[in-house]
Structure formats: C-alpha cells, structure tokens
Design brief:
Radius of gyration: 25 Å
Largest sheet: 7 strands, mixed
Shape: globular
Length: 534
C-alpha cells in the first residue's frame, strides 16, 4: 500500500514558526466569526429575545439532527465593508432527519433582517449549491425585505432567488419555507415559490403589500392578521401548508416535512472503509510555510487528509511541480491535483489535462489543492507553447463534469487560479486556509509591471522619469494588492465558501463529497472536452 512517507520534523524551527503563524491567523479568524455570531449586537439580540424569539443559529441547531455537523457557508461575507460581518444571513449545509439540506436563515437582529448586496449574493450562492448538488433547500424566513438605500444593487440580482426556488422544484428537489416573521413585498414569493410552507400563529406575516401600502394604493383599511397572518393563510388563502403554535412547533413541523420527502441520493456513495489517516492532521499547521514564497511538499498534506494516508501518485517523475494521484476521503474515491513548487510549466499542464480526463473516464470526483503562482512565462516557455498547454489544462477543468472541490492552501495567482479550478470554474465547494492569498499576481510583481510600463511610456514620449513618484506608486500598489489578496478580503467578497482550519480539511472534504453524491457522479467521456490544441 503506497502510504505517504512522513517527512515532518516537529522539532525543527521551521515547523514551530509555521505552526505559530497559522495559529495566530486562526485566532484572528475566530474573532471575526464571533462578530458574525453576535448578530446586530447585544441591544438588538436582547430586544429579539424579549419578543420570545429564538436567534437564527438557535433555530438552525434545533432543526438539525442531534450532534449533526453544520457546515456554515460564507460566514465572513461583507467583511471589510460598511455592512456587518456575515451580511445578516446564515447559510450552510446540515443534516435534517438524515437528509443533507442547504439552510438559509435571516438574522433579524441585523438591520431587521433586511438584505444588503452581500446578503443577496450569499443567499444566491447557497441556492446554487443546492441546485448543483440536488439538496433540499430550507429557508428560515424573517426578513424586512431589501435594504432600501441599496435597492439598486439588490432588486435585479435578488429576483434570481425566486427563479432558483422554482428551478429546484422543477428538478424534483423539495423546498421548504418556515416563516418566523414578516415576509413582505417581493419577499412574499419566498414562501409563495416554496413547495412546503410552515407558518406560525401570531408571528408569520406574508403579504405583497402591508396595511400602509394597501391604504395608500386602494384606500382599504386592514390589519396585519387579516391581510397576511398565519391563521388567514392557513384557513383562507391556502398559502400555509402547516400551522404552528409557536417557533418550536414550527421547527418540529419542518423536520416532519423533511422526514417524509423520500429524498434519495443519485451518486454511488462511498466505496471504501473510510479509515483515518496514519499521519497526524494536527501537523498540517507546521507544514504550510509562513512565507508563501517558500514551497512545501503537498504530499505531506495529502497524507494527513486521505484515508489511511494511502495515495497512488500518477506520473510522479513527470511535471514534478504538480502532484497528481488517486486516493479515498471518508471512503469516497477522489483524484487529487496539488501544486508543489508553485509554477505550472508545460509538462504540468499536459499532465493535469490527461489526469482530469482519466478521472472523468472512471467517474471520480476531483480535489484541487491550490498553491500556485501561475503558468511559467519567458521566451523559452512561449516558444514551447505554454499558452497552448495551459489552455489544455483550463479546457479540461472547464469541461470536466465530475464534482470538483477546491482548497486554497497558500497561493492562487494568475491563470493558475483558473487551471486549478478557482471560483470562476464552478467547484461544488471552495474553501480557503487563513494564510492563503488570491490575486492576478503577487504585490511586488504587479507593482513592478506597472512601474516598467510607466518607465517605457515616459521614454517613448521623451519625458524624464520621476523616480520618487514611481517609488511612492509602487509602495501604494503593493499595499493595496497585499490587502486585497488576503483570505478575509476574498471571503468577504464571496470568492470562496469560507475560511477553514487546515486541520478540518479532511472533514470538510468528506462533507463536500457526501453532498456531491446527492447528484449523479458522471464524468465526461473522450469527445466532450472541446478542441485540445496540439
């Protein structure tokens, strides 16, 4: 059995430095998670509780099976913006009555549960994951509607959420809305377009226009209950399928709905025993270089993620800057592509394209472990056809139809991000380690390119080049790119599905593979990849 050889020295200074660096970043990340979990702050949390209401995360916990994990998605959405961390909505994947579901719940303590631009994008990403993986979608609704001062960034894209609900239903994937408070105007279509609707006596309010709007539009006098209360919708309009006495009863009824769905996975499921790694996952913290310019061997990570540390490497002597091979994670067969020394040369690109095709031939999901500075540049490599070879790899990634899961371990720069299945290439899930960076190129390289262009421009026009202004520009650009490439910044813009503790990588990949197997796991065969330029 090809067990990955343990080459980690816990006594080394490098190991201690790397570990301390990642632990500090994880502590910073935990602080941001605490901010998101705090909702709108103590004042608004207490006001919410004084009304006899549960917090959104409490509702989710009550809804999930006992001790079932909840993989929260995009918890740092809106980080670094004027909006609260988390964007006022909680989304994630959890197990209800043995069924994996996507859950989305408004946090009514944050701006009354209104949706801002980041909250809309976060909700749409949750729906996208549900559609791609055929997961039942559960909405815990208590929303004040659109954050009106930002309506121009919300109204048009927000309409996709209702379309996605109907797409799920057309696919035969159930949708459930549990209404805990107001769901007005466009938000009324959230329950209106769900397959199942639970409303709560005295709490749920669903109407296209509330009493003030009705008064202004028609002159009609009405109250909340007769216009859109749970009792009316349960007895008169028929919008409510289940009528709950309180929140706990509403959650009980929600679990009851999921229990009766008869939802079945289409994928083959795990084939192996799912034995834990022989190598210690705790040591991953000391493997990953604190300085991203210093490479590390991804095999040492792979050996701490895959079952029994058993990894069958493919083409180990060819294209050595990219490690490829087959393994199992929690019993699920996977093909793994992991960057070694960062740069992708011609050989690595060709190796990757072949490996992706092979995985598709045998219906095997792919895991991408990113640590790349991009494709190699220079006269020699251009003449050897790096554009053609890199395009083969990107072609293969684009047209591969097996599930893809991506982890950014350290760096994801340039077109290497594309070839290693970055967000634009549709991974089912993409998570980032807290040390990771993503950008078109490194800060020094980008600032240097701008400096060279400016210098050439000055020379072509016969102007004297201002060295002091150039130095100031380079420093400003480097600072900007460094800040914008950091993991919290990228996660705040929803360019990933969240930042994770590297030690949890195996667990999260296992959840992702189980989720992906709700849908068919079928690869694209030989003629479905488009033209590979020779």
């Amino acid at each position: 059995m090809p067990v990955v050889r343990d080459e980690v020295d816990e006594r080394s200074e490098e190991y201690a430095t790397n570990r301390a660096h990642l632990l500090a970043l994880l502590a910073d990340h935990d602080e941001q998670l605490d901010l998101a979990a705090a909702g709108g702050g103590e004042k608004y949390v207490e006001r919410h509780r004084s009304r006899g209401k549960m917090l959104v995360r409490e509702r989710i916990e009550y809804l999930l099976d006992p001790d079932a994990p909840f993989l929260e998605l995009s918890p740092l959405a809106a980080w670094g913006t004027d909006f609260p961390v988390g964007a006022g909505v909680v989304t994630g994947i959890g197990v209800i009555e043995g069924v994996e579901c996507v859950l989305s719940g408004n946090d009514a303590t944050v701006r009354g549960g209104t949706s801002g631009p980041a909250g809309v994008r976060k909700s749409l990403r949750a729906l996208e994951i549900a559609i791609e993986n055929r997961l039942p979608f559960v909405s815990l609704t208590e929303s004040g509607g659109a954050d009106l001062p930002h309506q121009s960034d919300i109204f048009i894209p927000g309409g996709q959420s209702f379309a996605d609900l109907t797409r799920l239903s057309a696919m035969g994937v159930p949708t459930l809305s549990i209404v805990f408070g107001s769901s007005t105007a466009g938000g009324a279509y959230q329950p209106g377009m769900s397959d199942y609707v639970v409303m709560i006596d005295g709490r749920s309010k669903v109407f296209l226009g509330g009493p003030p709007l009705v008064k202004m539009a028609t002159g009609e006098e009405s109250d909340d209950e007769s216009l859109g209360g749970a009792g009316m919708h349960a007895r008169v309009s028929g919008l409510a399928d289940f009528f709950a006495t309180d929140e706990v009863d509403g959650l009980r009824l929600g679990r009851q709905v999921i229990r009766r769905l008869n939802h079945r996975k289409l994928g083959p499921g795990p084939s192996g025993a799912g034995r834990p790694p022989q190598l210690d996952p705790e040591q991953i913290l000391g493997i990953v270089s604190a300085d991203l310019r210093v490479p590390f061997d991804p095999r040492q990570v792979i050996g701490r993620v895959v079952d029994d540390s058993d990894f069958d490497e493919f083409k180990p002597l060819y294209g050595a800057s990219l490690v490829t091979g087959f393994a199992e994670i929690h019993g699920f067969p996977v093909g793994i592509l992991a960057n070694h020394r960062g740069v992708l040369f011609n050989e690595e690109a060709e190796k990757a394209a072949q490996f992706i095709q092979l995985a598709n031939q045998v219906d095997t999901p792919l895991v991408f472990l990113q640590n790349t500075t991009g494709y190699m540049v220079g006269r020699e490599y251009e003449q050897r056809g790096i554009i053609k070879d890199g395009s083969k790899m990107i072609n293969a990634v684009t047209n591969s139809s097996v599930p893809h899961l991506t982890i950014n371990m350290a760096a994801s720069y340039g077109a290497g991000n594309y070839g290693m299945c970055g967000q634009a290439y549709g991974p089912r899930l993409l998570f980032t380690w807290p040390n990771a960076k993503t950008a078109v190129m490194g800060p020094q390289q980008l600032a240097g390119v701008m400096s060279i262009v400016a210098r050439q421009s000055a020379a072509s026009m016969g102007r004297e080049f201002d060295e002091d202004a150039d130095a100031a520009m380079r420093a400003a650009v480097e600072d900007q790119i460094e800040r914008e490439s950091l993991a919290p910044f990228m996660s705040g813009k929803l360019y990933d599905d969240g930042i994770i503790d590297p030690r949890d990588t195996r667990t999260i990949l296992g959840i992702g593979l189980s989720v992906a197997h709700n849908n068919e796991v079928r690869g694209r065969r030989g003629d479905g990849f488009g033209v590979f330029r020779m």
